[in-house]
Amino acid sequence: MAGFRSLARQVRDPRCDLALRRYSLRKCLERFAPYGHRATWDHLCSRAGFGPEDRSPDPVRLVAALEELEEARAVWLAYEVEFAERRKKEKHDGLRRPGSVDDWHRLTWGGFGVAWCDDPAVHPREPLAEVLRRLIAALEREPGSNCPVCDGERLAWRYDLDHEPSAGPVCTDCGILVPRPVLTPEALADARRARLLVSA
Q1: Residue 169: Cβ within 10 Å count
Q2: Tell me: the pLDDT tens digits for 77-88?
Q3: Alpha-carbon gap, residue 144 to 184, rounded angstroms
Q4: Residues 6+ apart with CB under 8 A from 185
Q5: How many angstroms separate the CA atoms of 136 and 34, rounded?
Q6: Is 173 exposed, middle or buried (0-12, 13-18, 19+ CB in 10 A)?
Q7: From CA 200, how far away is CA 195, in angstroms rounded?
Q8: What percent of the chain has pLDDT over 70?
Q9: So which domain of life are we looking at (predicted)?
Q10: Would you state the pLDDT for residue 200?
Q11: Which position has the higher pLDDT, 165 or 48?
């Protein structure tokens, strides 16, 4: 099974058939897809200027989509290295029980679904790397009451998500499943009430 870098080389290789280059970009999303596979694909296509079903997109646009994905992956991999170093130091210092950020991080190891978007057509518009920088910054500061990506105030609790956890606070503005550790208990309670109001 080819790794991310090998697939990225195929996307860039002008000697490869265009269908293979597109397929290789889709396969990259099996290795790294911050919004989930379908939402990340929709995001990359819209940002690079080709349709999700376009079977022969402009190769320049394919590479532009790949470059955005690679930049975001570099941001996430750097965070994972820092996270692993921090946990190693904590264990050395006797802190064996992981915190809520660690529990969340375990579910997103490798970068899949870091900013999960259950609806593939609703996701942040900003570049993926910027979204991840905002999310990481939120994980490293005190919890707040707004979406860490778009600063939206409208969070609603959703159930039956195609992700783990299968329920949680979703930003109704940008569509991400907001990691619980970045929200205060009051914000989580408000999101649960917003869900109850939607259901009623």
Answers
A1: 24
A2: 999 888 888 877
A3: 5
A4: none
A5: 12
A6: middle
A7: 9
A8: 92
A9: Bacteria
A10: 42
A11: 48
pLDDT score, position 20? 95
The residue among 108 and 66 whose pLDDT is bigger is: 66
d(CA 77, CA 189): 32
Q: Tell me how far apart the alpha carbons of residues 21 and 102 are, in angstroms, rounded to a whole number.
A: 36
Which DSSP letter does residue 151 get?
A: -
Sorting pLDDT into bands at 50, 70 and 90, what band is 58? very high
- List the one residue out of 124, 134, 110, 135 whose CA is nearest residue 35: 124
Residue from 98, 101, 84 nearest 148 by CA: 101
- Which residue type occupies 179? P
Separation in Å, CA 69 to CA 53, 111, 157, 178: 19, 11, 29, 21
DSSP code, position 180: G
Q: What is the pTM of this model?
A: 0.90
| CA-to-CA separations, 107 to 112, 117, 144, in angstroms, rounded | 9, 15, 21
From CA 178, how far away is CA 152, in angstroms rounded? 11
Asked if residue 180 lies in contact with residue 100, where contact means CB atoms within 8 angstroms, the answer is: yes
Question: Is the model's pLDDT at 116 over the cut of 60?
Answer: yes
Residue pair 50/59 in contact (Cβ under 8 Å)? The answer is no
